[in-house]
Structure formats: C-alpha cells, structure tokens
Amino acid sequence: MRxxxxxxxxxVWIAALAAPVALVVAAALPGAWMAAPAxxxxxxxxxxxxxxxxxxxxxxxxxxxxxxxxxxxxQVAVLAEIAxxxxxxxxxxxxxxxxxxxxxxxxxxxxxxxVDDASWSGTAGLxxxxxxxxxxERVWLRWTGPLGLGARQVSHQLEDEVxxxxxxxxxxxxxxxxxLRDAQFGLIARRIRGEGTQxxxxxxxxxxxxxxxxxxxASARHTRxxxxxxxxxxxxxxxxxxxCGQAMCEPVDGLPRIDRAxxxxxxxxxxxxKGGDRVSLFGFAARPExxxxxxxxxxxxxxxxxxAAGLDYHAEEPNFTLALATLSARLKRRSMIVVFSDFTDxxxxxxxxxxxxxxxxxxxxxxxxxxDSELAELEAVDPDSLEALATAVTADSxxxxxxxxxxxxxxxxxxxxxxxxxxxGYRLIDAYLAIKRAGAIG
Length: 442
Description:
Layout: E1 5-7, H1 9-28, H2 35-52, E2 56-63, E3 67-69, E4 74-83, E5 91-97, E6 106-113, E7 119-126, E8 132-144, E9 150-165, H3 169-172, H4 174-182, E10 193-194, E11 198-204, H5 216-222, E12 226-231, E13 237-243, E14 251-252, E15 255-256, H6 257-274, E16 278-284, E17 288-291, H7 301-309, H8 320-330, E18 336-340, H9 346-357, E19 364-370, H10 373-380, H11 386-411, E20 415-419, H12 424-437
Parallel strand pairs: 3-9, 13-16, 13-18, 18-19, 19-20
Antiparallel strand pairs: 1-9, 2-4, 4-7, 5-6, 5-8, 6-7, 8-9, 10-12, 11-12, 14-15, 16-17
Helix pairs in contact: 1-2, 6-7, 6-12, 8-9, 9-11, 10-11
C-alpha cells in the first residue's frame, strides 16, 4: 500500500497563474529573480504539508453483489473510514473493472460523509452488458488537506468477482407466474387434454371441434356424435440451440442478440419443465461449445441457467454443418429443436439452410430470429438526400433478402418466429404450447 501526495487542481491553477507574474517580475527587477523560485518552493512546501496533515485512511471496503444479471442495474459501494479533517468535504473514488460490467471499464464517484463524519460512502451504478465472470480490478481513493492544495491518493488491488448471469426477469414476471399457476401447465398437477396421441376421455362433439377427433364407433353405439380427447404428451425432448457467432454478438437495444435469445429460451425452458418435458441447451460457433444433458425437473432449472451463462461470444462465422451434425448424433429420438440464429445475407445463410434441411425429416425444427429494428428504421425513413435514398434502398434490399431466407425455411417445413426482442420469449412459449397441444413432437 502506498500513500503518495499529489497536488490538487487548485494548486495547479495557482502555479499556472503565478508563472506569468514571475516572468514579469524577473524582467522588471532582475535583482529579484530569486523571488520566483522561492515562491515555487513555498507552493510545493504548502502542497506537501497540506497533504501530510490530510486525514489518515483507517479502513476501506468494497461492497458488491457476487451475482447479477445482464442488462440489470448493479450497485457497487465504496466505503472508507478516514481519521482527520477532509479539506473539501468529499472523498473521490475511482473503480477499474472488467468491461462486462460497463463498456468503459471504469467508474468515478464521490463519497459523502456519514453521520460520524469519519465514515464515507458512495455508490457506482453499473449495468452489465455481457455474461460471464467479471473482476473488480483496482480502486483509487483521494482526499484533500485543509488548504485544498495537496491530496492523499491511495490505490488498492481488488480480488472481487461478480458473476453475470442471463437475464431471468421474464421468468420472474408476475404475468408468467400467474399463467403457470392458473393455466394448463400450472403448479397443480393435472392431466393436459389436447390433441396428443394418448387417449384420455370421450366428450360430446360440439360445433367447431376438429372432425378428425370424432370417434365413429362410440358415436354409433350412442346414436350421437362423440369426440376423443387425448392427453397431450409429456416427456418430450426440447433442445435450445444457440448460434454464438458474429451475427448473434451484434447488439440490439444495448445488449447482444445472444443475450436476448438466452433470456427468451430460459423463459420457454422454464415453462417446458413445468409442463413435464425434458430440456437441453446446445451452443456452437466454429465448433460446438456447450451441450447439456436433458433435464426434466424444474428444480434443475439452475443447471440450465449455469450452462447458459457459459455461452461465450465469438467474432467468427458459425459452422452449422458441424454443429447440427453433432447435435443430431446426440439425439436418439424425435425432438423439438429450437435454433436461435441470425444472418446478414442469403449467401451466408445457404449452409444454415442446408444443415437445417437435414434435420427436418427426423425432428421438429423451430427457427427463432430477432427482428432487425435498426434495418426497419432505415427502411422507413423518408429520404431527403441522395445518401439517405441510397441507405433506404440498401435497407429495403436487405430486408427483402432476409424475408426470402425465412420463406425458404418455411417451405422446408420449418416453423419460423421473427419478432422484436421484447416479445420473442412469449411468441416462443405460444408456439411451444401450440405444438405440444397438437402432439407434433413425439
């Protein structure tokens, strides 16, 4: 630990203003040239003495949570106990940390005195922008002496770490919890009647029912129409596959697309676990990165959360051929595969389309992509110059190419969800429930 003395901004301004005066005195009175060095030495002496009589640091502490979620506010508190008088009534602090916690990698804050005037406290408000383990690296504290000319500055190496988890705000939302309590997939165990394959009961046919559900033999016996009610299948295998390549690392409204996708997937995974299905996560870029076992109990949801936190960011193109071939080899039965990905042009999407096409015959594929709001805004702007016109035309061309790729996927029998990031999780849940009611997975 070191306690270096440093001049304050006040001392620097005094020196800067005194320098021209010293030059004038030396030019007008050559015999008094010694006055200028003497004044400089006096100022240096005052700076040193002011710093020495400044308060003494007795103790300090950093208070930061061990866990937080990406995109959610994070408060890091700096506490200090200083014996003695602090000149300007404030203690300045600076924090250096992993850029995952904030893009700048640093924060400057002012500590205010508490009740006893010996304890000082300040809080830095951060907002994590990426998942992973982020280190708090160093802290600086500085306070001035009574004259405000000299200051003491202390620097400490930190060993604190903050684990940045995926955003689970949608999972905790009152709307979803109310849905889980009261809907078919609620906490009260009940059989789910739908259009699955396992017979549950007969009910009298009503207009609007699917005519394929009519049980003709039972209807003949009772001389009125009866329809079969089947129990929706449970224990289905659901795989959430994440493209962690370059396109998915691009930000959308402040956070990378992969983080938006992870939040949506975990929300849908939570509903699937409550519905009695088994869930697995799979992440890939140039090669497969993360592959979890299938979990079938909502009490194991934290394992999915931990695995999702390990999905890294890669500034490289994804290898769909290798990744989806590896995933297909792992699956021993028909499953629902939810692929989160993005693309910038049809040429780059060709390999993705071919690789997904190989899975359609064996599995149910759901392709999820986040709507490009920036592209839509550029396309909607009324051009008022040639440059703006060229931008709008390019945006419209890219939008049409994107729609063409999604249409090709639909023609192959792949369900496609394209929606803004803040609604994509609920769109995914609706699609999952519709597929489950239809018994289309097993």
